Structures are given as C-alpha cells and as structure tokens.
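EI: anyone free to look at a 99-residue chain?
SC: sure, send it
EI:
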Amino acid sequence: MHVLQTEIEQRWRAMFAALAGGDDVSPALRLRTEGMMESAVLLAIATPGELLDAMERCYQTAYGRSISEDFGADWQAFFPFPQIPAMARRAPVYPSTKD
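SC: here you go
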C-alpha cells in the first residue's frame, strides 16, 4: 500500500474513533484528509471506489455499522467524493424557558 493511502486510512480511523467516542473532529483535519483522497486519485494511487471501500471499513470498525446504515443508501448524493461523512453527534439542547 502506498504511504499516502496508509496516511489517509490512519486519519479516517482516528476521526471515526473520536466521533464514535463522542468527541469532535476539527474541520481542518477532515478537509485536509479529503484533499489527500483527491490527490491519491489524481496521482493514480487509488480509485474513488477503492478509497470509499477502505473508508467504509474504517467506519464499520469504529461504529459497528455501515455508513449507509447511518446516512442512508444514497449517502454519496449528500457527501460526493471526496467528502467524508464525519459528523459529531448533535449536542443535546434543553429549553431554558417555558416558552
């Protein structure tokens, strides 16, 4: 495996593990990783399909379910390649007034 692919996978694992654990991930880390994914395709190191399959495996390891289970079968319509579906859980919001 190419060093770029290895680095991308390490970043996915770190991102998904943090998010699955309830932590947040900086947008900068996600955006840089997306740029690396695009670079891997432009340099013919990997295809979009190969990268998406690898990202799916990393997601599955962290969450115990697939990306499709969390975002729907058409998740790539909302997150087209090279976007990473790395979203923190929504913060609980409680009303502060009776209104």
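EI: Residues 3-20 form the longest helix (18 residues).
SC: 👍
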